[in-house]
Amino acid sequence: MKLVLLSGGSGKRLWPLSNDTRSKQFLKVLEGRDGQKESMVQRVWSQIEAVGLNESTVIATSKLQRDMITGQVGTDIPLIIEPERRDTFPAIALAASYLHSEEQASEDEIVVVLPVDPYVEDGFFERVKDLESVLRDSKADLALMGVTPTYPSSKYGYIVPEGKVQGDSYFTVDCFTEKPSEEAAVGLINQRALWNCGVFAFRLGYLLQILQEKKLPLQFETLHKEYATLPKISFDYEVVEKASHIVALPYDGYWKDLGTWNTLTEEMATSQIGKGVLTDDSANTHLVNELDIPVTVLGVKDVVVAASPDGILVADKASSPKIKEIIGDWNYPPMYEERLWGWSRVLDYAKYDEETEMVTKRIHISKGKNSTYHYHNLRDEVWTIVRGEGELALDDYIRRVKAGDIIHLPAGKKHGIHALTDLEFIEVQTGKVISNEDSIRLIYDWNDVIKQFQSSRPQVIL
């Protein structure tokens, strides 16, 4: 059995902490087994390891989230990187082509797809294992896993059985009902319907046949190159709704979607994270502050206060799910990003009359980490080292840098930096176009950077 974790999302439901690069699954607000704060993806990965599924798991994600995943769960996990976001059908199709052509998986291999961020007990993943035998026994096109409802919720979709359900074994699916009224949900629960938690299994050959029928390539490299031509559509619409035989397996255990501030705060490790004061008379209120200035919350009830470089949110918890609608049309670049090498924070942005842009960032590179060796075509940069020591690679030499040094990097100049200690610098970018796309990465590993210099010319270290 192969497990595919889907890691995507625009990061808007938990704004302002989440953004395009740091979606909800990467927020370190939960309490781990060791008492340290952990993210949803770290929690899920530790559970997958606990049940022995980690060796057969791949993660499908976007280029923007690659560094976050490797930074939080390690570099040994196979990642399937989407060239661009195109919904769940293209993402799963790309994952299937990877398993087929890169991992040489059999067409009879069972593939289980699930979100990367369910908040569940370990028994959830033991139940996931049962999908393999369910799919083979039933000979169905798809096998889903659903959660036994604990109350008539109008927030979830329901998997409706065909006929009576016996015990906790799998059943044939009649239809799906998306977010019914609470009154309708009561009737669905009486029919033994399940909450749809986005977990499903199929034979690899089943999906490969669908790709062939759509005249899509089965080879990973080819499909990756043609990814922009794939239809922007969900797997539910493109595959699930067209399947002729679907079964569902009940999971009767703890499950919660931590997709909104009101549900996330119910499972947070503490009521306050970051600088500030949360007074004792602030009942059922949470403060999450990532800014360097204190935030004070006095005498309010059922409120979440969240502050980050991307913005500030003050919301009644019951109203917090509306935040995605409110900021849906906003298109601001992320002000804070976590990367494999550390983090960066935007301090200032300006656009001048002659259409020149200026971005000022504070950049932290952790000890032993490094940026890529790269260059920019459209912008100049000036670095001012403010903390620590490192090695700086430029066009024709490598030299030591330390606090107080200033480095000028005109467009086209190849450069990279390696932190000998925790290293911080202020980066001022100027140009007519400033974009994350304007980074031509040449070398990723620092040892390879050194080898490149040694092979091409004498290495100079000052």
TrEMBL record:
Matching InterPro entries: Cupin_2, Mannose-6P_isomerase_type2, NTP_transferase_dom, Nucleotide-diphossugar_trans, RmlC-like_jellyroll, RmlC_Cupin_sf
Keywords: Isomerase
A Pfam entry, by short name: Cupin_2
Protein name: Mannose-6-phosphate isomerase family protein
Lineage: Bacteria, Bacillati, Bacillota, Bacilli, Bacillales
Domain called Cupin type-2: residue spans: 363-426
One of the record's GO molecular function terms: mannose-1-phosphate guanylyltransferase (GTP) activity
Domain of life: Bacteria
Any Gene Ontology biological process: GDP-mannose biosynthetic process
Cross-referenced SUPFAM superfamilies: Nucleotide-diphospho-sugar transferases (SSF53448), RmlC-like cupins (SSF51182)
Domain Nucleotidyl transferase: from-to ranges: 4-269
